[in-house]
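Each record in this resource describes a single protein on a pair of labelled lines. With that in mind, the following record should read easily:

===
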Amino acid sequence: MAGAQERPEAFQLDKVPEVRMAEIIGTTKRALEGKRDRGVIPEGVWNKIDNRIFYSIRRYEAWLESQWACPPELNSLASQSAFDSRVEVSAAARLSRIPKRQKESKRQPIYAIK
């Protein structure tokens, strides 16, 4: 019983009003309302019940995760195990993204006329 009281509120409730959802994700109610009105946050993540807006924390997190741009090779669900010896490394993965330093051109000698 003591374990249930120690859990944070975010894990006890899934459906929360818009004001509480704004607090949870660290934004204002007005900003959250604007994202909802513009269609940035899709309906299904939020729902209107008795003229009040409620959000599902679980659906919000799933929607946010779907927005995350991740190459397929980094996705743990789509890639093979890291211990699999049959994994091939592509040429693009081996290239360094750090630009090589340009070699300095040889300086021309300076002659002084006396």
Remarks:
- The two ends are 97 Å apart (CA to CA).
- Residues 17 and 95 are 48 Å apart (CA to CA).
